[in-house]
């Protein structure tokens, strides 16, 4: 099988390793079949799409809607390189799934409005799948309502032209969308279970998602949730696009 590619941008080693473990676990892929590149550490090398079955983009501390003059040189480089990669991905309708940061990255590339209107605090939220989502292969086997973990400072306020909305929540109208047939983005995190989210809360307690002294309260809320369905999206992506 041709490997899948995970593009990661988390500078903290603990967060980056935790994210990789989660993607391995919920895709069911062996490390040899999930090639990871930490784009925040080094320039993205020249990639041949034909060498991969599909591409995952993990979450990120970066926000595409940040003012340009506040972005670091690393963020500017990462955004430029991901944009160039997405040029080829979109041109070839190549399998792509971006989690959280994927909404800002794919959405912005395709002309969406990405801003701070529909930010959500870290924790569980109920996702509602619409008719288009119910018919989409990546949501096959999931109920029309399920809980997922979110935590983001920006979101998609207006979909790109031609994009198909697949799922929403009461506090964020764009939770999952598709571009063409094979490009996907979720605002929620399909790679997170409770333990992984708790680890991430501790790592990012000073990152502005919540007051640092409320970290234990945020953790208690996460631990009380039942989030089991979102990882199936990752498994569905692999099952659909794995190729020799």
Automatic annotation (TrEMBL):
Keywords: Glutamine amidotransferase
InterPro entries: ChyE-like (IPR044992), Class_I_gatase-like (IPR029062), GATASE (IPR017926)
Domain of life: Bacteria
Keyword check for GTP-binding: no
Domain Glutamine amidotransferase intervals: 48-192
CDD domains named among the record's database cross-references: GATase1_1 (cd01741)
Name the record gives this protein: Glutamine amidotransferase
Source species: Arthrobacter vasquezii
């Amino acid at each position: 099988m041709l490997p899948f590619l995970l593009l990661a941008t988390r500078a903290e080693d603990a967060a980056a390793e935790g994210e990789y473990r989660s993607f391995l676990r919920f895709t069911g892929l062996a490390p040899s079949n999930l090639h990871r590149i930490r784009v925040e550490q080094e320039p993205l090398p020249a990639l041949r799409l034909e060498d991969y079955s599909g591409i995952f983009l993990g979450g990120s501390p970066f926000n595409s809607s940040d003012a340009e003059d506040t972005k670091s040189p690393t963020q500017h480089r990462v955004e430029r390189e991901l944009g160039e990669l997405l040029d080829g991905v979109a041109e070839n309708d190549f399998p792509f799934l971006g989690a959280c940061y994927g909404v800002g990255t794919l959405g912005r590339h395709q002309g969406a409005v990405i801003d701070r209107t529909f930010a959500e605090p870290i924790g569980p939220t109920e996702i509602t799948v619409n008719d288009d989502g119910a018919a989409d292969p990546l949501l096959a086997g999931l109920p029309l309502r399920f809980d997922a973990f979110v935590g983001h400072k920006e979101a998609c306020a207006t979909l790109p032209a031609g994009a198909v909305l697949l799922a929403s929540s009461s506090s964020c109208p764009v939770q999952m969308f598709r571009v063409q047939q094979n490009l996907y983005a979720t605002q929620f995190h399909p790679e997170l279970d409770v333990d992984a989210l708790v680890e991430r809360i501790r790592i990012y307690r000073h990152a502005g998602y919540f007051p640092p002294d409320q970290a234990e309260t945020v953790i208690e809320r996460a631990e009380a949730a039942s989030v089991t369905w979102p990882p199936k999206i990752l498994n569905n992506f692999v099952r659909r696009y794995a190729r020799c």
